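Justification of resources, computational component.

The compute hours requested in this renewal are based largely on the per-chain cost of generating structure records like the one below. Each record pairs the submitted sequence with a full C-alpha cell output. That output is archived, and it is also reused by downstream analysis tasks.
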Amino acid sequence: MAIPIDRERVRDSLKEWASEEDQRRLWLSDGANGAEVSSFVEARESLFTDTGLALDLDRGRIVFDSTADAMLKKLDMLISQIDANQAPNQIIADDQMREVRQLASTLLRLVR
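The structure output for this chain reads:
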C-alpha cells in the first residue's frame, strides 16, 4: 500500500524552488540568531525524498495528475543537471535555475 504524499510539504518545497529570494535567504544563511537554513541538496531531498514523491513518480503512480506529474519529473531532471558542488550563490545564479524557478512556479499553481 502506498504511503500518502504530504501535499502541503510538496507545496512548501516548491515555494522554495520557485523563489530566488527564498533561496538567497535560506541557502546563504549561516543560521545565526536562529535564522532558517537550507541548501540546494536539502531542498531537493525535501521535495522528492522526504515527501515520498520520488518513489511514487519512479513507480509510475499518479500523484497529482498526468500533467503535474510529468512536470515534477522534468523539474527533478533539471535540478539533477545543476552542479551541486558549486557555492550556493553560484547555484542560485546558474542559468538553469531560472527554468527551475519558472517550472516550480507553474507547479505551485497546478498542485493545489
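The mean pLDDT is 93. The chain is about 65% helix and 0% strand.
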